[in-house]
Amino acid sequence: MTGSSVQSEKSLKNKGKVPVIVGVTGHRRMREQDLEKITESVREQISKLRRRCPHSQIIVMTCLAEGADQLCAQIALDMGLEIMSVLPMPIEEYAKDFTGKPLERLYELAEKSMKTFVAPHTEPEQEGREYLYRQAGVYVADHCHLLLALWDGSEPVKGGCGTSSIAQLKLENLSREAGEQLRHAKGQVVQIKTPPVGSPGSVEGAGAVTVYGDEAWFRRVLRDTDIYNADCEQEDPPESEERLSAVYESADRMSMVSAVRYRRILAGMSVCAVVLAMAFLLYDEVDWYGMIVLCGIMIIMLFLINTITGKSKCRERYLEYRILAEACRVQSYLKMAGTTLSVAEFIPWNLQVAVPWVSRAMAAITAGDTAGKRQSVLKIWITDQKEYHKKALLRSETQLMRNDRIVRAALIFTILIYVGALAFEIICGGLFGGKVMFSPETNDVIRVIIKVAMGTFSAATVFTGNYYGKLALPNVIDDHLKMILLYEEAEREIAEKGESEPLLVRIAEDELGENANWYAYQSKYEPDLGI
Predict the structure, then answer these.
(1) What strands lie across the sheet with 188-193, from one edge to the other?
(2) What sections of 428-472 are H helices per DSSP?
(3) Distances (CA, A) of 54 to 197, 222, 228, 246, 358
(4) Sign of the dihedral defined by the CA atoms of residues 313, 319, 325, 328, in that order
(5) In the CATH scheme, what architecture does the domain 19-231 have?
(6) How crowded is residue 341: how many other Cβ atoms within 10 Å of its Cβ?
(7) CB 3.0 to 4.6 Å from 196: which of 27, 144, 408, 489, for a disulfide?
(8) Domain range summary for the chain, segments of one domain joined by +
(9) β-pairing, 209-213 with 82-87?
(10) What whole-number distance in Å separates Cα of residue 185 and Cα of residue 320?
(11) pTM of structure
(12) How far apart are CA 393 and CA 322, in angstroms?
């Protein structure tokens, strides 16, 4: 197999997946005698990550600086991984800081990178090369799942570009200015002790590993990311070649598949519950003692379905994959609007806590992306989404009216059964001293039929009328109304002031906020055997 065909096979395998990104920061000058142990530790940390995420593509992201960056990039290539290079400035200018072998490796590694690009500036503009170096370090810290820090543990300098400053930034998520949206400070840094050139002492201690950050949170993010990627392998690869679009296609499709699976489970629970109610009434009222066996079977079926639901996680997948798909959709709008803004910066707090892997996924998916050709926000986003929400509102209102009709019909049917039962007791059953028209045995049979019919129908109404997510319909309708008002206001603002980046930020935040609200109330309505 040729190199190009191997690469093509890798690309096909990873289409629609969320990459797990290992960022690198570290000293430029490392002691020669420490390199073997440091290399061994780096390889072990990457191998450990591969074992944790067997279904995920691991990408190593570095700035290709002399020393730690180039060492880790070469280790990654030797392990068959892809590398992504984030440069602080154009490579011709960057090369002025290199001489000899490191200069040769700079161009060589840049050539072998899946992407090589100049880091955008995410902090207020300043003069000097140190500011540019910091922006590259900030980008790596913001877009990686795990930051490998090859340094001696020295104290950070506020606003600095050194390894300790970038490591602190990763741990505390401090790259945004004060006053902007809070970010869940849960980064993880793995320090590989790397004494810089000139440090006293022997080789002892070099390569020692210290882990900083919330390990439980990190494990959860990796687990959920790898579950998503494993699910991708069970589906046909998406058509799009561009990573953002491919992830959207995969997440959207798998969300729909999980939703269908979840509704089938609810339907199964509903049928079992109705049959259970009918069987128990027949056992209790008609003395069909064999019905107790059917009751037992239905109870076992309910518990089995509930267990399958818990193990398959189809409900969680439906909700989480929908959130990922919607985040990708908003990101694509931002990209088409000609901006480099990242959705990862706008993920609402409750989603950062509830589904942290999604915000990390968005940072990884957009790594290396550049702004697309600017298009009209009004045309590609606002008008289109306003029409979508109008149609969705109509569908939701129709569904709610249908649900209300079911409830009203059930109430009318219940009243009719009651009226019929009352009439039977007055006319035929001797109620209030009237004449008994039928034999006691016949009257008992009629009464049993009435009880079984009313009990079975009531059980069926409870599940069909309320269980299929219809309890959330008023919330859904309210959300659609709010979004229609948002887009109408955006249209007015554009007509008066024109399109602007602050407007894009507000729309993105409000759309993601709507998704967060949807996730919150949908999470409440889960199958409950108590019902």
Answers:
(1) 115-118, 82-87, 58-62, 20-26, 146-151, 188-193, 209-213
(2) 440-466
(3) 37, 10, 12, 20, 19
(4) negative
(5) 3-Layer(aba) Sandwich (3.40)
(6) 19
(7) 27
(8) 19-231, 244-524
(9) unpaired
(10) 21
(11) 0.82
(12) 18
